[in-house]
């Protein structure tokens, strides 16, 4: 499974969901869906924008975890 660590990265950068959504150009609702791991997919353009704003790598946001 893919774990989304967006909340961890956001906390380190001290940025709110609303502020990040505004900077990235997506809705609060869509960012919340991603943050709570309810998203089925993410566009590369969205991932790129998140990495740019959070000054991180994709691996900081997404992590592969083997199912037990």
Comma- or semicolon-separated keywords:
2 strands; 5 helices; 57% helix; two-stranded antiparallel ribbon; mainly alpha; 434 Repressor (Amino-terminal Domain); 68 residues
Can you tell me about this structure?
Residues 12-61 form the HTH cro/C1-type domain. By secondary structure, the chain is mainly alpha-helical. The protein has one domain (2-64): 434 Repressor (Amino-terminal Domain) (Orthogonal Bundle), CATH 1.10.260. It is 57% helix and 9% strand. The chain contains 5 helices and 2 strands; from the N terminus they run E-H-H-H-H-H-E. It has helices at 6-13, 17-24, 28-35, 44-54, 58-61, and strands at 2-4, 62-64. The chain is globular.
Along the chain, the helix and strand elements come as: EHHHHHE
Overall CATH class: Mainly Alpha
Q: How confident is the prediction overall: mean pLDDT?
A: 96
For the largest beta-sheet, the strand count, sense and barrel status come to: 2 strands, antiparallel
In whole angstroms, the N-to-C terminal distance is: 10 Å
Radius of gyration over C-alpha positions, nearest whole angstrom: 11 Å
Count of alpha/pi helices: 5
Number of beta strands: 2
Residue fraction in strands: 5-15%
- In the CATH scheme, what's the topology name? 434 Repressor (Amino-terminal Domain)
Low-pLDDT parts are none
Organism: Bacillus cytotoxicus
Protein name: HTH-type transcriptional regulator YozG
GO molecular function, one term: DNA binding
Pfam family, one: HTH_26
């Amino acid at each position: 499974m893919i774990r989304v660590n967006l909340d961890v990265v956001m906390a380190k950068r001290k940025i709110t969901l609303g502020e990040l959504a505004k900077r990235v150009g997506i809705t609060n609702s869509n960012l919340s869906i991603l943050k709570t791991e309810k998203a089925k997919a993410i566009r590369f353009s969205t991932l790129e924008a998140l990495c740019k704003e959070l000054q991180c790598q994709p691996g900081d946001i997404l992590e592969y975890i083997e199912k037990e």
